[in-house]
Design goal:
The protein is mainly beta. It has one domain (25-124): Beta Barrel (Lipocalin). The chain is built from 1 helix and 8 strands; from the N terminus they run αββββββββ. The protein is globular, with a radius of gyration of 22 Å.
């Protein structure tokens, strides 16, 4: 038992002197580019808000939903997961967004159970 304690202390001291390889903390995505930004349609009725914990909130027609996002700046694409908006006649599933050359964002969605896709254009508000 004492032998194990001595070996444990020795390893701790050795690792602090030699320095063990550090984890790479380089972000795996470009999410920070969108933190604390808000995007909406021209009439401010629908849109997205991005948060520092990699979550995103959608708002439209009095409904709200929260999901996660992953932004890849090199291709300008935002993968969105968990965003579902419930209306009286259908459920909208928001799947992603593409940054446009003019600084706007094209938000992609479809109705639950349908193949046909839709999009709307959002503009940065904050």
């Amino acid at each position: 038992m004492i032998k194990r304690i001595i070996i444990g202390v020795f390893i701790c001291l050795l690792s602090s002197c030699v320095g063990l390889p550090q984890e790479d903390y380089t972000p795996k995505n470009d999410n920070a580019e969108l933190y604390d930004t808000e995007w909406s349609t021209k009439d401010y009725q629908e849109g997205l808000k991005f948060y520092k914990d990699d979550t995103v909130m959608s708002f439209a027609g009095g409904t709200r939903s929260k999901g996660t996002f992953e932004y890849t700046k090199s291709i300008g694409f935002i993968k969105l997961e968990g965003l579902e908006e419930y209306y009286s006649t259908y459920t909208a599933i928001i799947t992603g967004a593409q940054m446009q050359d003019d600084g706007s964002m094209k938000l992609y969605w479809h109705k639950l159970g349908e193949d046909k896709g839709y999009y709307e254009v959002l503009y940065r508000r904050r």
